[in-house]
Amino acid sequence: KEKHNDFSEKPHEMSRIKKVIGIVSGKGGVGKSLVTSMLAVTMKRLGYNSAVLDADVTGPSIPKAFGIKEKASGCEFGLFPVKTKTGIDIMSINLLLENDTDPVVWRGPIIGNTVKQFWTDVIWSDVDFMFIDMPPGTGDVPLTVFQSIAVDGIIIVTSPQELVSMIVSKAVKMAELMHISIIGLVENMSYFKCPDCGGKHKIFGDSHIDEIAQKHNLKVLAKIPIDPKISAACDKGMIELFEGNWLDPVAKILGG
Ligand code: ADP
């Protein structure tokens, strides 16, 4: 695998990982974890082996969305990811902490190191697509993660409530700095489809995502509606059952 920078670490020698996609956002709460989970599910449904590396150490929400109750196990060679019901490999800090509700109050360098170990010390045996739920923003921690893991491309998740123009500019700069290509943008909470009238309502107003994408020569890959069924599926740990084909265009690009 081609190295993206001088700092990137080698994955565990028993790991076999083909493609690594980072999912980034400007701040928390826009649906980055949701998009990460749904991408892993979408690729799994298409027959690929998919995995999620939960690098959002201070707000880990991946295990809950998949309803994972067990903890990660290890052997003398390394740690094993936990498999979801449909066979997606997951590693998250919550699979290592004894108590899920313990807050992670570590400082940046420790968090960076933990994520690095999810890459170097976990045995990811046969992964076609690994999706990394990145820490939000473009600060120290996401930068460290990008430096230590050879990411093939990133997907930027935005929502219409944000200053999307600024977030996209920052993410573009970060990607350039790290020599990582941007696969495109996903707009979450784009609209609400009324179950009664069938009309599409733009709850947060017009988003301007298309103009912003065009300005940076990026693709808008998907627009995901606000859907109470999505949040219910996350809450119940049943994200693998989500209905909707919003991310199929992304799958097409990734699958080639
Ligand atoms: P982030 O990873 O960006 O912090 P999450 O993916 O954890 O955000 O999403 C925050 C919350 O919003 C979660 O409870 C999630 O279920 C909910 N949510 C995200 N996107 C949608 C959506 N399109 N429709 C309904 N609920 C959503």
TrEMBL record:
Region Disordered, residue ranges: 1-12
Family indicated by similarity: Belongs to the Mrp/NBP35 ATP-binding proteins family.
HAMAP family from the entry? Answer: Mrp_NBP35 (MF_02040)
Q: What does the protein in this record do?
A: Binds and transfers iron-sulfur (Fe-S) clusters to target apoproteins. Can hydrolyze ATP.
Q: A Pfam family for this UniProt protein?
A: ParA
Q: What is this protein called?
A: Iron-sulfur cluster carrier protein
Q: Name one GO biological process term.
A: iron-sulfur cluster assembly
Residue numbers binding ATP: 26-33
The alphabetized UniProt keywords are: ATP-binding, Hydrolase, Iron, Iron-sulfur, Metal-binding, Nucleotide-binding
